[in-house]
Amino acid sequence: MTTTSEPPLQLTAGVQLVRPSSSLGVLARPKGDTGWKSWLFTVDHKRIGIMYGAAALVFLVIGGIEALLIRLQLAVPGGNVLSEDAYNQVFTMHGVTMVFLVIMPMAAAFANYLLPLQIGARDVAFPRLNAFSLWAFLAGGIFLNTSWFLGGAPDGGWFGYAPNSGLVYSPSNGMDFYALGLQIAGIASLVSAINLITTVLNMRAPGMTLFRMPVLTWMLLVVQFLLLFAIPVITVALFLLTFDRLFGANFFNVAAGADPLLWQHLFWIFGHPEVYILILPAFGIMSEVIPVFSRKPIFGYPFMVFSGIAIGFMGWGVWAHHMFTSGMGPVSVAAFSLSTMFIAVPTGVKILNWLATMWGGRLRMTTAMMYSVGAVAMFTIGGLSGVTHAIAPADTQQTDTYYIVAHFHYVIFGGSLMGMLSGIYFWWPKMFGHKLDEKLGKIGFWVLLIGFNLTFGPMHILGLQGMSRRIHSYAADSGFNLWNMFATVGSFVVALGVMLFFWNIGVSRRRARGAPPVGPDPWDARGLEWMTASPTPAHNFDRDITVTRPDEFWHRKWRIGPDGEVKRIARAADVAHDGSATDVHLPSPSYWPVVVALGLPLVAYGLIYNLWITGLGALLILGGLYGWVFEPPDDPEAHDHHDDHDADGSDDSGNGASGGGASSNGDGAPADGDGARELAGVGAGLAASTAKATGAQP
Amino acid sequence: MTAEQPSARFGRPLWRRLGLVGIALAAALALSACADEHPLDTLTEAGPDAQEINDLFFPVLGVAIIVFFLVQGAIVYLVFKYRARRREAAAAARAEEHSGDGDDLYGDDEYPAQVHGNLRLELAWTIIPTILLAVISVFTLISLVELNEVSAAEDDLRVTVVGQQWWWEFQYHLDGDTSTPPDIVTANELVMPVRQQVPLEITSRDVIHSFWIPRLNGKRDAVPGRTHPWVIEANEVGRYMGQCTEFCGLSHAYMRMYAVVLSPEEWEEWVQGQIVDAAPLEPGDPGFEGQEVFLANCANCHVVNGVTDVNLDGRLDGMIDYAGANSITSALVAGAAPNLTHFASRTTFAGSIFDVYEGRAEWIPYLEVAERGDLNRGHLAAWIRNAPERKANDADGARGMTAFPGLTEGEIDSLVEYLTTLR
Amino acid sequence: MSQTPPAPPAEEAAPTLEGPDGPLSAHAHDAVHEHPSDRQYVKIALILGVLTALEVFTYFESVHNLGDAALYVILIVLMVLKFVYVVAWFMHLKFDSVLFKRIFTAGVVLALGVYLIMLTAFRIWGV
Amino acid sequence: MSEVANPPPAVTAPAGAGHASAAHPPTNTGMSHNKVAMWLFLGSECLLFGALISVYMFAKSRLPAGEIGPLDVFDIPFTSVSSFVLLMSSLTMVLALSAITRGEERGFRVWIVATALLGGTFIAGQVYEFTVFYNLGLGYTTNIFGSAFYTLTGFHGAHVTIGIVMLMSALVANLRGRLGPRNAETVELIGLYWHFVDIVWILIFTIIYLFPQ
Ligand code: HEA
Ligand code: HEA
Ligand code: CUA
Ligand SMILES: [Cu+2]
Q: Are A454 and A413 within 8 A, CB to CB?
């Protein structure tokens, strides 16, 4: 049941319109909507989304440069671009960066920006917590990368198998940075998952039932559930590793009777859901882009949704396919081999439904569409090689070879990254008010696609010819020379493609200056996010939108006649909001999310170097939380809004005068314990996770 | 293994035919399936286990390739068939207007029939792959069972394989009893008889490694604290390359190995040569000086059976003791260095990345050392002088062989001389 | 495919999670107001106390000759009972929205499933 | 402008609407964000403690013979008492909530203090237990059992400690007039967390302490 009778667009439950005294008295609340401070302290889901995306792109360049170093080293046999040690750090950080600092935040960017818009909400459920997620993620990412300058980056591979990741075998601080950095990023993801699920469950526009939600929203919801349940598993694994390394625990100490497979199980119980965390957002994006540019609704909406849910579920029962050769026993191998294979079914449904969406459509091959179609094609290749890994006996030949490297680059680069590039081209006008250049975009697409296949296609062959992963060099007579050279050349073509993308951003920005804005709906799209001005105004929508069917916005523009003919009934500009509302009350910026997030890396540095720094970080976290809890989500002085809502008006004056006691809230305004309530709600989770980082060592 | 009668297996002929698609493509892709050029090639099997795996892999690859062509073909078809024609003029006009209606790019206001789905179609492409995969899973299970069969008798040869940073140790139990000290201990080259299934027990002394001779069988991880059964068998006499495939630190890439497959007679001869201890050299014997230098510098890590005066049982104990009870007095984490008793009978050293003899012959008669050409003095001397420079390791000597800056060139020469006596 | 008539607006056909007993149905939440009385809480606490006493009782000799298997069964049953009582009554799950029940059950079931499989793969049950 | 342009926050219910409306803002589910979030968090915590308990069970099964283990250190009667204490704190917690929903702030304070005290007693018991174990020769690094035991119970203890901090914050907020019947939901949420920590101990007590060793 949706509460259509009641306005659903509240900012946060328990939001407090007025507070008699300002937060701590010491610090004035951050104000204004321009300048760097307006970004640093923002709680606007759109700005947060954009910053997630920007950070992801920066990390893409870092991870990409690492990839290029790998390829340079492997271009010819016996390469000496990197030392053995450096190579191990570079490929480890390449994997970690690409997975945790590129694809995940890129997905978070889309989730933050689009999810509230697609369900017709004003913001996420906990705006400040959202800001905290961003900064915690960034803190974790930067923390990880500082390891380069502090005695060496992690060198145990992105899945950090124990005991090689233990102190004896990896004595530099690198793996400590790995364990703690991922822990911090994990806190960010967990908090964000809670936030976004609550948003979807609670804040949909009137009439926006779950089965009217866009497929992207659905996929993002599934992803948040996967994060919710998967993050704690790696949290535990990383704690065990940290405790082993820093405090001499025995979890992976074979001499004490430990079994290294424990790490593998824990890592992959997280790790396999993780790969669906990486792909489902892209699936969602493709499910938005393809219908728009095919001019048809998504084919088989319920199947699309349920297959996404099914993938999410089945993703929990296949983890040990990464361990077919680990010696876990034939029964486990058989069971996981079978469960893995059948994941191809719901995935195949998605692929074929996309094709069916295109079938009989009028395909407008824009850049966004090309990336989406490209992603379908490339992902299929990766998925099919995935099925050949699932055949456990065959995987004993394939595992840890470049055949696997080919598989996961096809699914991650070819699926996730291309899908997200599609999303960037598609929603760029919504985010920035101008399109990216189509011509450059298409050239970039072809360069990228060709380079991508040139790089990773040959890796299938290399792998089947027996080239192992994670080797910093190969012998000249192993027969790997030719295809490695191809791959290296290809990787530079990819780099060119990526550079064209960045170039496009620059060119398009410059061209857009002074040019008329793009209008709310440049693609004749379907989702609610297009029903407001571009770029999206801070308050998202001017009015409430009542949803009566899927693709509500499209149906307001077009009508399907009795003969199935589609007729325009309105122009987008007439239907969409122009963003001119001035009386919208928004949550105010806040310092505290940044402060708390800043404490996290300090705690982590301290654990590595000096416990005093940990203390400092803990103080920062505690102080930040305190400030946070006692700061109202909303600052009455922040902006001068014109309320036309009676209750609000009276709240403003009535409560402002009274001295802040609970009893003073006689007019129904919230009591002052609201902050405490947010603490209890999610602050508890946050506090618990931070405390795990600080207080849980015996 | 039931490799003797492959065609008798359930459904195999048809299954194999499907595999032809896979084979064709794999072969085409690989350009050359010549095993000499690709010593680690997984597609040119040389043993029944690898054969079993490829019998399963090729048909699945065939299915995958068919699906690949269907999907890619469909994409290309759809894109060309249903592509909207750009209407440049109209587009320009719209762009001028900036109506924000989303058609300024294509100037196309037309919509095709709005199809929301088709239950029957969707069920079809849910059920068909399911059936396909169910069939594949049956064959997968069959293969799994077959691959886990051990045909060797209880008292046949059994080899304990021990991985460590960054070399392999092979402990031979000729009577099949792995609970007793092994009869032969060698490094990096797994010598084995042809057409005989050799059961292995794979383990590790430090981190996780993975034992893999691609042309003979898939891989199996060497996990410390665990012993994993595995089998290996070769159809033909030859030399098959292997590589550690689980990331194990600095010199992971340099952790290779060979399976050396001998005819039954040669195998017998090899065994006879290996089970004897080395004889301590007397003053005046060639290599005697080297032996002295060896005992002074090398014997706290390396064993030469019969020469180094350390308790043999402690050294060669097939049971790996992690509690530090190794009789090795060095700081080696793994607690073991290659056994050098018959060093000169091997063809490669240090994780099989260097040749003991000059010139890597296509196939060296394994037992006739005399025919192998000249000793690779340069490599050996360089190794003894400064091993970390030749093969990255932990510089403090805890993992891998330390450098010996203190040795004079003369001493190094004498050591090389001594090593050649260890046949 | 193209001959398929335009499908009915999906919202009619689409299943809904928000129907009378969908996970998002809020109808159960009216029950929240019927908080159990303090007396009921005390009663539950008494039951919990007794169950704990029973648990501790198994520790002392008398039950030992039942054998480990029986002991495991008894202890697990008692544990689950306590778990359910606290969750249902003290955490109000019995009275609260089904949504919460499903979220929490999802967590519990997932944890049970995944970790039991993991421990089974390690064969720690001695079988 | 329409009613939505200025979405009235959930809690600004018309005057006199009573506490119920504050507790149930007009969200799609009818549940407040905070409560949904708390349950999601608890769902997530299941996987966390599930992993820790599994790691413990696994570690115990791998403890080499002859090493100091559960049988050498556990003092069941003692732990039974502290388990009972924690269990009863759940009762006082729920009574505190019940009190504040009825507007009995005095009762609320009494029960909340009682809860915190019981929790504190439990923690004190745990500290004592750790000391005894340590003196018996079981350190954190002694063996795999020690590492797993202290990590699991340490995580639980940390959760209890955070719970106590939240209880005390609620008490202070109430004393300062910032937490009344109107936001009883805050107390409810703290309670949810507290009860969850309690049920985790129910599992730990049975699985770690009482199961036949
Ligand atoms: C985006 C991330 C992503 C995705 C979506 C997938 C999807 C899949 N993956 Fe992949 N995988 C990774 C990322 C991903 N993977 C990574 C990063 C690794 C390596 C980790 C590491 O070791 O570092 C890995 C490793 C990996 C392994 C371990 C290999 C090894 O190390 O030995 C296996 C084994 O089974 C596997 C299988 C699969 C399968 C069956 C799917 C399926 O979901 C694919 C399903 C899709 C299709 C099958 C295509 C479309 C379907 C049709 C058109 C229908 C018809 C098809 C048939 C009937 C076959 N993957
Ligand atoms: C999201 C996932 C993702 C992405 C996008 C990529 C992208 C790439 N990967 Fe990735 N890769 C992984 C995830 C990913 N990888 C993972 C998880 C591993 C396993 C790690 C492990 O084993 O632990 C791995 C391992 C891995 C290996 C195997 C290493 C080994 O086993 O030894 C190789 C080898 O070629 C490789 C290559 C590449 C290349 C060439 C790209 C390229 O496509 C990259 C393209 C991007 C760029 C090229 C950046 C372009 C920008 C510029 C060039 C700007 C220049 C700017 C200035 C100069 C200022 N990767
Ligand atoms: Cu040993 Cu890799
Ligand atoms: Cu996987």
A: no
Interchain proximity D38–A682, CB inside 8 Å: yes
Task: Output the DSSP codes for D83-112.
Answer: HHHHHHHHHHHHHHHHHHHTT-HHHHHHHH
Q: For residue range B52-76, what is the model confidence (pLDDT) as tens digits?
A: 999 999 999 999 999 999 999 999 9
What CATH homologous superfamily does A45-512 map to? Cytochrome c oxidase-like, subunit I domain (1.20.210.10)
- Atom of ligand 1 at shortest range from CA of A352: 53
Instruction: Tell me, using a 6 A CB cutoff, whether residue B246 lines ligand 3.
Output: yes
Q: pTM of the full predicted structure?
A: 0.90
Least Cα distance to A259 among B227, B339, D169 occurs for B227
Element (H, E) at B210: strand B209-211
Interface confidence, given as ipTM, is: 0.90
C-alpha span between B59 and A389 (Å, rounded): 13
Q: What is the pLDDT of residues B217-227, one digit of tens each?
A: 999 999 999 99
**Which residues of chain C does B114 touch, with a Cβ-Cβ cutoff of 8 Å?**
6-7
CB of A308 closer than 8 Å to CB of A280: yes
Burial class (CB in 10 A: 0-12, 13-18, 19+), A391: buried
For the four alpha carbons of A273, A275, A277 and A283, in that order, the dihedral sign comes to negative
Q: Which atom of ligand 3 is nearest to the CA of B165?
A: 1
Q: Which of A1, A651, A681 is the closest to D33 by Cβ? A: A681
| Least confidently predicted of A116-120, B81-85, B159-163, D70-74 | B81-85
Please report, for chain D, the start and end positions of each structural domain, with discontinuous segments joined by +.
33-60+67-210
Q: Cβ–Cβ of C2/B115 closer than 8 Å?
A: yes
**B210 CA to centre of ligand 3 in angstroms:** 6
What per-residue string of b and e applies to A459-472 under the rule 16 or more CB within 10 Å gives b?
Answer: bbbbbbbbbbbbbb
Burial class (CB in 10 A: 0-12, 13-18, 19+), A574: exposed
Do residue B115 and residue C10 have CB atoms under 8 angstroms apart? no
The three-state DSSP-derived secondary structure of B121-152 is HHHHHHHHHHHHHHHHHHHHHHHHHHHCCCCC
pLDDT digits (tens, 9 = 90+) for A441-456: 999 999 999 999 999 9
Q: Which two tokens stand for residue B383?
A: 């190794």
Compute, in angstroms, the gap from residue D168 CA to the centroid of ligand 1: 50
* pLDDT score recorded for residue B4: 39
pLDDT at A640: 38
Beta strand B256-262 with B189-193 is parallel
Q: Is C2 on the interface with B (CB under 8 A)?
A: yes
Report the distance separating Cα A219 and Cα B216, nearest Å: 44
Question: How high is the pLDDT of residue B88?
Answer: 54
Query: How many angstroms separate the CA of residue A161 from the nearest CA in chain B?
Result: 8
Q: Which of A462, A638, A689 is nearest to A38 (CA)?
A: A638
Q: Is any ligand 3 atom within 6 A of the Cβ of residue B207?
A: no
**Which residues on chain A are in Cβ contact (under 8 Å) with B41?**
464-466, 479
CATH no. for D33-60+67-210:
1.20.120.80
Query: Range(s) for CATH 1.20.210.10 in chain A?
Result: 45-512
pLDDT of residue A13: 31
What radius of gyration, in Å, describes the C-alpha atoms of chain B?
A: 29
